[in-house]
């Protein structure tokens, strides 16, 4: 650890290089920059490809992703890459460091007021700072206050969130404000004003004729809905995105709260009317589909014994997934019928500590289909793969994604499944399909492929009949 006191330290930068003289940094060199408006910032020099070919300078200084300074804004620069302050910082009584020798011709620029995160001092959000790093080098970066594990933030200095975490920074001091920092400051100012206004919000007497308890409005809407849907409940209504009463810009409003995005609360205010009764009518229409699809006579058509529904799902799945047994599926997929917020629901349970999932199916048949899908996945998980054939393919594009893997697997039971995977440079996904016995009942390979492509259509998953029928090894792998 360095011995000198960062609070008393001053850095003097001397011998600046002037852009107008075409005295440029090396490619990728990180620099302290003086701008034409007198502000100071930093950045990594990135010349354009034609730089140096003509008379004009062409390039930019990069500070982060979509965060650059054009060469046209810069008067002069001083390298932050060419100095190591280690020997100086190890001197306990040192309080001044000259970089490049001291000059008296007005070329020098001094920075002081250094702080340390070890003392609990952090920059303001989006503030661009001059840094003294733990290895004695200099740097610069924009403060990102978001948490990274146990670390309370980091200094972003290059694209793709390249950063100096606080454990790499010995001391920091702010450079000049820029438009990013000023926009953040304005946003913070607006937040403070919003909090102040919302401490004592006003209430529109027409809009909140029945008070500011949202339960009252749900109950009034419920009374109207029950004329058409006698089984309706508030719980069913709230299966649609819920409405609340909340302060916004100093007044109470009907709204939906979509949570926090980048530290900003996302409030969607209702603006389709101006009276309480208009909102109640709106609430009826907004929740009608959820109530209609919650008809207990349709949902519990086969009674309140969950085994009846599971038996039907098992019998349907057993036709194709012939190796499965009920005991295995009951262990993998547990369902119950229970009350949730006063309403009876189909619920999938995930064990003692796994929580539960409410299966919001509008009918008994839809719930049985839901269970069937779960049973099918569970059945494939317990059927061991004994052999694999990966279909070779060229450059295949699927709606902007490239086909990455098309893989057939033979299972211990003698059945087959296929896995298709696609992606682009940043994301991707895969999907598994069971090849039903119906496909293998085909007498010819041509007929088999016709049936198979009904399950894994070529226009959706990359390979068509012409691609597959030409693969002799695949034909043999599938037993034809």
Number of domains: 4
What is the structural class?
A: alpha+beta
Tell how many strands the DSSP assignment holds: 25
Distance between the termini: 73 Å
Shape: extended
Helical stretch tally: 14
- Report Rg: 33 Å
Helix proportion range: 25-40%
Summarize the structure.
By secondary structure, the chain is an alpha+beta fold.
Describe the structure using short key phrases.
480 residues, alpha+beta, 4 domains, six-stranded antiparallel sheet, five-stranded antiparallel sheet, 14 helices
Description:
- The chain contains 14 helices and 25 strands.
- By secondary structure, the protein is an alpha+beta fold.
- The chain folds into 4 domains: 10-179, no CATH class; 214-294, no CATH class; 298-382, no CATH class; 385-477, no CATH class.
- The strands form 6 sheets. Strands 2-7-3-4-5-6 form a 6-stranded antiparallel sheet, with no helix packed on it. Strands 13-12-11-10-14 form a 5-stranded antiparallel sheet, with no helix packed on it.
- A hairpin with a 4-residue loop joins strand 24 (416-423) and strand 25 (428-435).
- Helix 3 crosses helix 5 (276-292) and helix 7 packs across helix 9.
